[in-house]
Amino acid sequence: MMKTRSILRAGAAVLALSLAMPIPVQPTYAQSRAVPQSREQITLSFAPVVKQASPAVVNIYTRRTVRQRVSPFMDDPVFRRFFGESFSFGVPRERVEGSLGSGVIVAADGLVVTNAHVVKGSDEITVVLNDRREFPAKVETVDERVDLAVLRIEADGEKLPFLEFGESDDLEVGDLVLAIGNPFGVGQTVTSGIVSALARTAVGVSDYNFFIQTDAAVNPGNSGGALITMDGRLVGINTAIYSRSGGSIGIGFAIPAAMVRTVVDAVRAGGKLVRPWIGADGQAVTADLAHTLGLSRPAGVLINEIRARGPAEKAGLRVGDVVTAVNGRSVDDPEAMRYRVATLPVGGSATLTVIRDGREQKLNLALIAPPEDPPRDLTLLDGRHPLVGAEVANLNPALVEEMRFDEGVGTEGVVVMQVAPRTPAASLGLRPGDVVLRVNATDIGRVQDLRHILDSRSRSWTISVRRNGRVMTTTIGG
What we know:
The protein folds into four domains: 6-24 and 46-51 and 164-268, Beta Barrel (Thrombin, subunit H); 56-153, Thrombin, subunit H; 280-366, Roll (Pdz3 Domain); 379-477, PDZ domain (Pdz3 Domain, Roll), CATH 2.30.42.10. The chain contains eleven helices and 27 strands. The protein has helices spanning 39-42, 47-53, 77-83, 116-119, 257-268, 287-293, 311-315, 334-342, 397-402, 424-428, 447-454; strands at residues 6-9, 12-16, 57-70, 91-105, 111-114, 124-128, 134-143, 148-153, 176-181, 189-200, 211-214, 226-228, 234-243, 252-256, 280-284, 301-306, 322-326, 329-330, 349-356, 359-366, 379-380, 390-394, 414-419, 435-439, 442-443, 460-467, 470-477. The model is unreliable at 1-13 and 18-30 (pLDDT under 50).
């Protein structure tokens, strides 16, 4: 069963596509761009590049066991109406689901990069090379925020073919690229096209939206496959398509190699991937904002929130500044700024290009890990109130990153970590990830504030929580 993932956009769908010899380095790709000058140049073949790259592109087959209870009463529509389709009474049965995708070997010792959705929930993973050799593989890390996973082939020390990373930041619209993968399970397939757009940030496939767009045909099963340049280097991992029918219409998206490299480097270093936190947030500069700010064109990120004592504040960034570039790479919206920072290592620094009062200046930004400030103060609530059974913690930058929140950097509140079943908190409908904002008209900034107000033994409770950007208020008793 092929893995696909859909995101509705404007009546269509964005579908997630479910060499012991390193590739020889050719002359710099950027220097070799040229308009064909003769018939011989026009009839040049991609075959040499494909022969070098294809041995490092693999097929990935996964299996997982799904357990469910089956009841003979489920054939009765009246039974289903009253008890629901997911009613668990009955005989437990198991069935095995299989899926397929693609991957790329990026190191001779067997590191394989693919999409997270290709291996999600799998019990068994098999990697099949282009020469039909099969190897079991295990998951080294999964980063669902960027839809990437790194596997390790258990090859008993055998050196494997691999692809070297290219510089995805050096790509230009119009560059030739090849997509290699296993669409629809038909076997390894190569398609050609061009880079049709860069820095696509409105795709909505992952938390870090910043994609290479190509018209090379990619289809379900190409997930995790390679996007390579004419010098045989890996510049992207194919991950999604824009489609009305489920097949390719010439709009595919790939995760840039710059992001892929950060995940692979974390695995090689044997540690957990930690992305820098800058302590600032903003909005894209629209045409109206550009006119108001006196800018020549709409570009950059207008800073509207800065976390006290954070790296941005220490660098001298101010509310009202417009960030136009990170390390000389332009940023046109908050997603692009987050991507540029996320591909840089913690412990280093970055140069922000900022427009302030109509003048451009450079700021040096320290890149630090998201801090545990304030401390979490993990607490299981008990007593006599509607939140009994909820485990809560102080919201802080580290927790925002860990729980994949898209919150403002200055947000305060108490986040629900877990809810015990059959407790007042569960009856209230609280869920992990809810942020408690107010109780009985009292703003909740820290766990200690929440505990203090809950100890007051009120006869009625009015509780406001934020969930997925929406504030909901409930009153109990009274």
